[in-house]
Design brief:
globular, about 10% strand, about 50% helix, five-stranded parallel sheet, 5 strands, alpha/beta
């Protein structure tokens, strides 16, 4: 997804500001503190790559990625197809929902805060109903769900651990699925998202642990992480 001019300028300004701050620290930091600082900066850039309002709640700019999602949704619904839409960030899904409401596109929703007693009801409503979309946070939808009513999967923000992403996609490709499943990954061109995915071929171990929230991230040096911003 190519970002609009103003959106791209905001991203580049943020990236350069982040780089300046990280390369000229105001105090001496231990390696672990340095890594945490860089990881936090990477997360801010990842959010900005998806939607300007995830970086600045007051940002007036539109999201090119959200517009591309709407184009895709319109195409799929016109063809009578259904899709699972995954994001790592519930804040991202929170921006998608009112846009779908305005378009009068029906959907079910599930995240980590959904009570266990309601999960089965939400899944049943999608499987047996006619809503074209099921919005799911990646962590909540990685395992234990059978969503074969969908024949498309959309990842709004790519997960750096491909195994986790594949587990989520497999929710639509379970026993009982009789149709081919198409997986879409929306990646903001020229941003941190593309940089990390490019690394996927060269340094799989780095990509799989980057920002995964696991202790394995401790194996990465701050300079390796900072190189992704440069």
């Amino acid at each position: 997804v190519a970002l609009a001019s103003a959106e791209w300028q905001l991203y580049e300004d943020a990236r350069l500001a982040v780089l300046s701050d990280l390369e000229t620290p105001t105090k001496e930091l231990k390696e672990q503190e340095r890594k945490l600082e860089v990881l936090a900066a990477l997360t801010r850039l990842r959010l900005l790559a998806s939607h300007p309002r995830l970086y600045d709640a007051a940002a007036p700019l539109r999201s090119s990625k959200l517009e591309r999602l709407l184009e895709l949704v319109r195409t799929l619904t016109a063809e009578g197809q259904r899709a699972l839409v995954f994001s790592q960030f519930t804040s991202h899904l929170a921006l998608v929902r009112p846009v779908l409401d305005a378009e009068r596109v029906g959907y079910q929703y599930l995240d980590g805060e959904t009570p266990a007693a309601e999960r089965a009801d939400v899944v049943r409503a999608f499987q047996q109903g006619s809503d074209p979309l099921f919005l799911v946070s990646l962590k909540a939808g990685g395992v234990g769900l059978n969503l074969t009513a969908a024949e498309n999967v959309v990842h709004l923000d790519p997960w750096w651990n491909p195994a986790v992403e594949d587990q989520a996609s497999d929710r639509a490709h379970r026993i009982g699925q009789t149709r081919p499943v198409t997986v879409y990954r929306l990646v903001a061109l020229g941003t941190i998202e593309e940089r990390v995915l490019a690394l996927h071929e060269k340094k799989r171990s780095l990509v799989e642990t980057l920002l995964s929230g696991k202790a394995d991230a401790a194996k990465l040096r701050a300079e390796e992480l900072l190189a992704l911003v440069r």
